[in-house]
Amino acid sequence: RIWVKLRLHLGRVPDSRSQLQIFDLGGRIITQKEVSANLIQEIDIATLAAGMYFVRYVNKSGSAIARFKKE
After folding, report:
1. How far apart are CA 2 and CA 12, in angstroms?
2. Cα-atom radius of gyration of the chain, to the nearest Å?
3. Distance CA 10, CA 28 (A)
4. I need a surface site. Which of 24, 42, 46, 70 has the fewest CB within 10 A?
């Protein structure tokens, strides 16, 4: 199975200033995108090298971070 998209299910509809960011273990932001008004968000990860990454959801109330592995 080849991963090309990371699908995230947000707990509530994002506000207008929400962002998703992917960063590597060194803390460098690899990609970021403004979040649309959907509970399900997708980020293209086809060009990422295999390894561990973090995805961060940021909005005016705070942020949440999750780890994922691209093989």
Report:
1. 29
2. 12
3. 23
4. 46
Q: Global pTM? A: 0.79
- In three-state secondary structure terms, 27 is coil
13-34 pLDDT, tens digit per residue, is 667 678 899 999 999 999 998 8
- Helices vs. strands in the chain: H and E counts, helices first: 0, 6
Q: Is 48 helix (H, G, I), strand (E, B) or coil?
A: coil
Burial (CB count within 10 angstroms: exposed 0-12, middle 13-18, buried 19+), residue 55: buried
- Convert the pLDDT of each residue in 45-68 to its tens digit: 888 999 999 999 888 888 889 999
User: Tokens in use for 61?
Assistant: 């109330």
DSSP label at residue 46: T
Distance CA 34, CA 18 (A): 6
